[in-house]
Structures are given as structure tokens and as C-alpha cells.
Amino acid sequence: MRTTLPTIRELSPAKINLFLQVTGKRQNGYHDLCTLMCGITLFDILYFDFQASGIDIQCTHPDVPENDTNLAWKAARLFGEASGHMTGVRIRIEKKIPVGAGLGGGSSNAATVLKVLNRHFQQVLPDEKLREIGLAVGADVPFFISGRPAVAKGIGEELIEYHSLRKFHVLLVNPGIHVSTAEVYKNLNLGLTKCEKIITKFPFSGGSVDICNFLCNDLETVTAKIIPDIERIKALLMKLGAGGALMSGSGPTVFGLFSDINHAKFAYRELKQFREGHKFLAEMIV
Asked: What would the pLDDT profile of 163-209 be if each residue is shown by its tens digit?
């Protein structure tokens, strides 16, 4: 008699970049970064069914591919190759994180797949190997393997957990316009970047820090030329009481940090020009 395995449900968090410095460009075209990433309580929901044949990806968002170009599909394939456990799995992605928004949704999904498959097969691979596989899928994937605040350097291969962040409430606003990460990097002028001056005094070794003093993103100026609303949203968030505001990743999502949940909720209500699905309340995962 065949035993029916239960469907596994797993949360897959978004992230924000609290600072993002572009430190250089490699000969292969990849850019070196120094970025502080932190997970937030905005989640996609992933469902795993191990009764499937092969790797099957389904997603509720029409712009997310359901084939081998999906990062979750790539993660499942690479896990099978590395572990020797090639098996059928159907993965259904219920999208809550905006797509192409600078919040790492695809990378988070890939990391969630790696962790769930590894758990399903009794931790057959160590975390170090999962991070290695994750880096082959995407630069942000290793961060999501642990999910703790971390400074990432290089193209994501150097990851140092950071334990001194104070938790803030996060109000995210997405203009609803997709931006190409490749296009943003293509138009970046390294001579005009400014984050190095701002984060030079950041205590990378730990210690008390007001992260609002270090918010910067070398990609923001580039993306703001494509989507001018980014500067307007930042100004609105600051006017409504945010301690700091910044674009995350290559954008276009902008976040504001609030010490008080009531102030964050007030700002959320005041942003009447942005409909549901384009503004989100969350917390930092620290």
C-alpha cells in the first residue's frame, strides 16, 4: 500500500538592503558589493508535494516562470545532483513578495527549496554545501540559507552574520513598475558612487549602532533616473515619521524604518495613493 506524504508548507521571507555599496567590477561583468541584508516578515508561501514526477514548479504570479529558468527549479535540480537524491517534487509558490522589486523573493524561494529538500532527506548536506549550491543559483541565496542579518561581500560568497541590529517596523512601498537589475548595473557609474563615505564608520565587528545613520544604496541614483517616484516615496516616508528611508537592492521598492508600530500604521493609512499589494507593513527579522 502506497503511503501518502503530507504536503509541506514553508514561509519564504523577503529581505531589505540596509546599505549597499558597489566596490568594483570584475572582468566577467559581475560587481563586487558590500551590503548589509536583513530579512523581514513579508513572506511568500511554498508548498511541497513529494508525490510528483520530476521537478514541477507552479506559481500564482503570471510573471514568474514555471520552467527551468525559475530559481526554485534550479535549486531543486542542483540539490539533487549534489546529494544524489533525485526525486519528484511539486513546488507551488504563493506569491506575496512583489516580483522584480529588490526584495529577493526569487532568491528566498530558492533557499527555501534547498532547506526543505535537505530536511526531507535527513540533513544529507551541511549548511556550507547548501550555501555553495545557493551561490550557484543566485548571489543572495546564501544569505537566505541562514536568514539572519548579515554583511555580504564579493558577489555574495563572503557572508558575515551581524548580531547588533535593533529591530524596526518596516513600511515598504512598491511603485508597481518592474526594473531590470542588469540594466541598473549597466548604467552604474562607479565614479559617482557615494556609500563608501557613509559606511566607512560602520562597526562591522559589532556594537551598538543606529542603522538609520548608515542607510545608503549606490544603485538608488541609477534606478531613480528610470523611476522618479522613488525619491518622492522616500520623501513621503520621512515626512510621515520614518527614522530613515531607502531603496532596497536594485529597486524599485522603497522602505521606511519606524521605531513605533503605531507610527508605522499611521503612515501606512496616510499613503492612500498606493493601493493594497503595493504597500506592506513588516518587521525586521533580527
From this structure: 999 999 999 999 998 888 889 999 998 888 899 999 999 999 877 78
Among 161, 177, 209, residue at a domain's last position: 161
Catalytic: 15?
Answer: yes
- Is there a domain that residue 273 lies in? yes
pLDDT tens for 94-136 read: 999 999 999 999 999 999 999 999 999 999 999 999 999 999 9
Q: Catalytic one among 15, 115, 234, 279?
A: 15
Cell 516562470 locates to 65
Helices (H) and strands (E) in the chain, counts: 9, 11
* Domain span including residue 218: 169-285
Active-site option among 115, 140, 218, 234? 140
Give dist(CA 255, CA 234) in Å, integer.
Answer: 8
156 and 195 housed in the same domain: no
Q: What 3-state DSSP class applies to 178?
A: coil
Q: What is the pTM of this model?
A: 0.94
In the residue annotation, 186 being an active-site residue is answered as: no
Question: Which of 123, 145, 161 is at the close of a domain?
Answer: 161
